[in-house]
Amino acid sequence: MLERHRAGMQAVALGVLGYGPDVEDAVQDAMLVAMCRIDELRDSAAVGPWLRAIVRNNCRMRLRASRSVPMADLEALVVPTGGSAQEELLERRAQRDWIWHALGELSEPLRLVTLLRYFSDVSSYEQIAALCGVPVGTVRSRLNQGRTKLAAALRATADLAHDDVAVLTEARRGEAEETLAAAERGEFEQAVRNAWWPDLEAITPDGQRVGDGPEGGRNLLIRGMDSDLSHGVHQRIRNVVVSRDVMIWEADLTSPPDDPQHCPSGVVWLQHLRDGRVRRLRLFHPRPVSPAG
């Protein structure tokens, strides 16, 4: 499906980057982004413009970063098809599940930066570095390693049956929305005591780390949520990303009407799981990214 649009994608990359090796890298990177976000596409007839938009955004990010990020050989992702619209839909879903299964084969540090880069809005090197607490150079190195290992994992798992990622993601999104709804009802403490370990390690947006004593991390975040609600701050889940032992919630924040600048516009809940419950949680306020000119 993607291969037939390669020429149009290359034309867009050439128009933004000019002739050079970055063009093919940008197209390959965009193909990986497209495969990771394939179920965002609702109309198969719109696939061409959708892919070209991904390439254009990718190229602009490369220009802002002032250096390219080499892509591993991900040709295994590009599977031409001449089937019906229904067959293409089934193929896209199968490929999505295949990619998510392969992502699960990566180590947690590599998987986390890959999830953030391709599945979340915290996708710039600088924001990933700030959220993960590592230098930008480490983010670049982990992404390069992750793409190489992901390509190998895709080849190794091509013939396996894969879980339905959409079902898992929807279930986790429902849990996220219910957790915030419980907070609105005054039941946040009960909800998180069921979902978070008593020895939870918590890191607040200002870098405060709590978790040495029993209940310390949980109590800190419970008090924080209660304080936000008492000041009229509300959250709405925008996106949920899940992978084995990592879960990311992206939520919009709404300030009180009488104080529209009270809080940032959004918050990311980066959660590391142990046996299905949250063992470490970091809250992070992404910085707005100005659109490319």
Description:
This protein has 293 residues and is of the alpha+beta class. The chain folds into two domains: 3-163, Arc Repressor Mutant, subunit A; 167-284, Nuclear Transport Factor 2, Chain: A, CATH 3.10.450. It has helices at 6-17, 22-36, 47-65, 85-103, 108-119, 125-132, 136-156, 165-184, 188-195, 216-230; strands at residues 196-203, 209-210, 234-243, 246-254, 266-274, 277-284. It has a six-stranded mixed sheet with strand order 2-1-6-5-4-3. It is globular and about 55 Å long. The two termini are 31 Å apart.
Distance between the termini: 31 Å
CATH class of the largest domain: Mainly Alpha
Instruction: Give the ordered list of helices and strands.
Output: HHHHHHHHHEEHEEEE
Helical residue percent?
A: 40-55%
Strand content: 15-25%
Count every beta strand, where a strand is a DSSP E run of 2 or more residues: 6
Question: Which strand order spans the largest sheet, edge to edge or round the barrel?
Answer: 2-1-6-5-4-3
**Uncertain spans, ≥5 residues at pLDDT below 50?**
66-91
CATH fold naming of the largest domain: Arc Repressor Mutant, subunit A
| CATH homologous superfamily classification of the largest domain | Winged helix-like DNA-binding domain superfamily/Winged helix DNA-binding domain
Q: Label the overall shape.
A: globular
- At CATH level 2, the architecture of the largest domain is Orthogonal Bundle
Query: Largest sheet at a glance?
Result: 6 strands, mixed
Radius of gyration: 20 Å
Tell me, rounded to a whole number, the average pLDDT.
78
Helices, by number, come to 10
Indicate the structural class: alpha+beta
